[in-house]
Specification:
The chain is built from five helices and eleven strands. It is α+β, with helices and mostly antiparallel strands. The protein folds into two domains: 85 residues, Rossmann fold; 85 residues, D-Amino Acid Oxidase, subunit A, domain 2 (D-Amino Acid Oxidase, Chain A, domain 2, 2-Layer Sandwich). Strands 4, 5, 6, 7, 8 and 9 form a six-stranded antiparallel β-sheet that branches. It has a three-stranded mixed β-sheet with strand order 3-11-10. It has a two-stranded antiparallel sheet with strand order 1-2.
């Protein structure tokens, strides 16, 4: 019931709404929420950061300590890379596969059983999913899985049988047993009075985009706490 206080609309699905899908459903929920399409959002937010003066650098790291001589604050958002950088054995990849189809008539999202979902995006593109393969790092496309996903989604929403297949994608979710690692960190002494604050923010699984605002706030709060602790010791 906590979801009722989070989204603008949350209620029991009506009999009329049940007619939109196949199946003998006994209960369903209807709610409205925000859609963030990453292939549009990430380029936008990167341009905004560049305008604000943020610099992007790409490099390979073997240890977070390599950054302590250059930066006062390091926020670790390395996802699956934290297994090596932090020796975090709780991190496990969960492989996922989705289809992108052209179906501009789909105006609402649907979630069913067995990780079956239909999510409309921009420009008539709809995401069909999905799959969750625990501890799998196989990023090759599985044609059998694609067939199974499409069959499940078309069974749920029959009109999808007329949808044109546009793309098939595979990705790895950085799942962490025990939850996201956030609110943790340490202070590294670089000699004399120079110190670097290292704070972690990784292990979001498949929910990184929707959890980002909240985990970012929690991360900043942790940095502030460490900064206060550092200043009080100097």
């Amino acid at each position: 019931r906590w979801l009722e206080s989070v989204v603008p609309v949350y209620r029991r699905a009506t009999e009329e709404e049940f007619q939109l899908v196949n199946g003998n459903w006994k209960y369903g929920s209807f709610f409205s929420t925000l859609l963030t399409q990453s292939n549009l959002y990430l380029p936008w937010i990167k341009r905004k950061l560049l305008i604000d003066g943020v610099t992007f650098k790409q490099r390979k790291l073997n240890s977070l300590k390599e950054l302590t001589g250059e930066f006062d604050i390091v926020i670790n958002c390395t996802g699956l890379g934290a297994r090596k950088l932090c020796d975090d054995r709780r991190l496990v990849s969960i492989r996922g596969q989705v289809l992108k189809v052209k179906a501009p008539w789909i105006k609402t999202f649907f979630y069913g059983e067995l990780d079956t979902y239909v999510i409309p995006g921009f420009h008539g593109m709809v995401t069909l999913g999905g799959s969750r393969s625990f501890d799998s790092e196989n990023i090759r496309l599985c044609p059998y899985e694609s067939v199974a996903i499409r069959e499940r989604c078309e069974t749920l929403v029959p009109s999808l049988k007329d949808a044109e297949l546009l793309q098939q994608k595979v990705g790895l979710r950085p799942h962490r047993e025990g939850g996201v690692r956030i609110g943790e960190g340490n202070i590294v002494n670089n000699g004399c009075s120079n110190k670097t604050i290292i704070v972690h923010n990784y292990g979001h699984g498949g929910y990184g985009v929707c959890m980002a605002p909240g985990t970012a706030i929690a991360t900043v709060d942790t940095v502030i706490e460490f900064h206060k602790a550092t200043c009080s010791k100097i």
